[in-house]
Design a protein that fits this description.
Layout: E1 2-6, E2 15-19, E3 29-39, H1 41-48, E4 59-60, E5 65-72, E6 84-87, E7 101-105, E8 109-111, H2 118-121, H3 125-138, E9 146-149, H4 155-166, E10 170-175, H5 181-185, E11 190-193, H6 199-206, E12 212-217, H7 223-227, E13 231-239, H8 250-253, E14 258-261, H9 268-279, E15 287-292, H10 296-305, E16 311-315
Parallel strand pairs: 9-10, 9-12, 10-11, 12-13, 13-14, 15-16
Antiparallel strand pairs: 1-2, 1-4, 3-5, 3-7, 3-16, 5-6, 6-8
Length: about 325
């Protein structure tokens, strides 16, 4: 099968087109013909060597799959050849989705939303699983609560806004002026232009000093430390950023704030729940651009440069 492979860590130009053997599914696995995949920050972080102690080269990267089941293992009864599926592969395993085919354990696979194309569905799995973990499992977001979602025009942020609104929350979000229309179109109640406004001041003013129930940090820096000043008592702070910068946690102590550091894990049942919302029209894909898989290097460069609205999808 054809793959885009890396044999060394470095810049986006380390990708090479290659041919490797098509894998065979084990007893509990499916072989999926990939129709589309997408690019995520964890992909370029892995490519440049951020996790090189966990990786063995050569490696195939890629963290999203939308495709068609080609073969099933002897113990798989939940799926059949020809089923359209979507899922998030295991991260940092070196056998990712920048390929023609992928083998996955049946536990991480879900049926593709019927109202989405493969290109659209490929934009969903990693961000969907991550946001579900952050808002629903860790954050325990409830109807009537308020949430601040950073970077509302990005892949995670644009999905998180929609899930939070589907759950009945009031959503604050941050983005640049040129992207304000996107979070608004997704249902955000208050969009904060971080170039012109201080999000902490806005939230203090608009909540009469009460603060929000939950903060989703997707940007790092001093966000954790600053978030404690805008959280209500017993609020929840969720961060998906591997932050090396020290943070002062003192302001969280007398508020009984809960801090969750989230590294998403794939599980098909999460995508099944999200499929229901997608098919009801409560969550829609946000796609910045679509490129052929062979142009994965350009996709990485574009994502690293920043300013991407939603997801960059790679089509086979």
């Amino acid at each position: 099968m054809k793959v885009m492979i890396i044999k060394a860590f470095g810049g986006a130009d380390v990708f090479e087109a290659a041919e490797i053997a098509t894998p065979e599914p084990g007893a509990n696995e499916l072989l999926v013909r990939i129709k589309a995949t997408s690019v995520n920050p964890v992909d370029y972080q892995t490519r440049r060597g951020d996790y090189q102690d966990l990786m063995t080269l050569p490696a195939v990267l890629g963290s999203d799959v939308s495709g068609v089941v080609e073969k099933i293992g002897s113990a798989v009864a939940e799926f059949a050849a020809g089923d359209e599926v979507y899922y998030m592969p295991e991260l940092l395993q070196g056998s990712g989705s920048y390929a023609q085919y992928h083998v996955a354990d049946k536990s991480i696979v879900a049926r593709k939303p019927a109202n989405l194309s493969h290109v659209e569905a490929a934009s969903m799995p990693l961000v969907g699983v991550t946001v579900w973990d952050c808002l629903m499992i860790r954050g325990q977001l409830q109807a009537g609560e308020s949430v601040l979602i950073h970077a509302g025009a990005g892949g995670i942020g644009s999905f998180a806004i929609q899930l939070a609104k589907a759950m009945g929350a009031y959503v604050f979000t941050t983005c640049s002026a040129r992207n304000i229309d996107l979070p608004k179109s997704l249902g955000a109640d208050r969009v904060i232009d971080y170039h012109k406004e201080d999000y902490a001041q806005v939230i203090h003013q608009e909540t009469a000093g009460a603060g929000v129930d939950l903060v989703l940090d997707t940007i790092g820096g001093d966000t954790i430390e600053r978030s404690f000043t805008i959280l209500r008592p017993s609020g929840r702070l969720i961060s998906i950023v591997d932050i090396s910068q020290p943070q002062n946690l003192l302001a969280a102590w007398d508020k009984n704030v809960t801090l969750h550091l989230v590294f998403a894990t794939p599980y098909g049942a999460k995508l099944d729940r999200l499929r229901e919302l997608i098919e009801r029209g409560q969550i829609r894909p946000v796609i910045d651009s679509v490129l052929p898989l062979t142009e994965v290097a350009e996709a990485h460069k574009k994502l690293e440069q920043g300013g991407v609205r939603g997801k960059i999808v790679l089509e086979n």
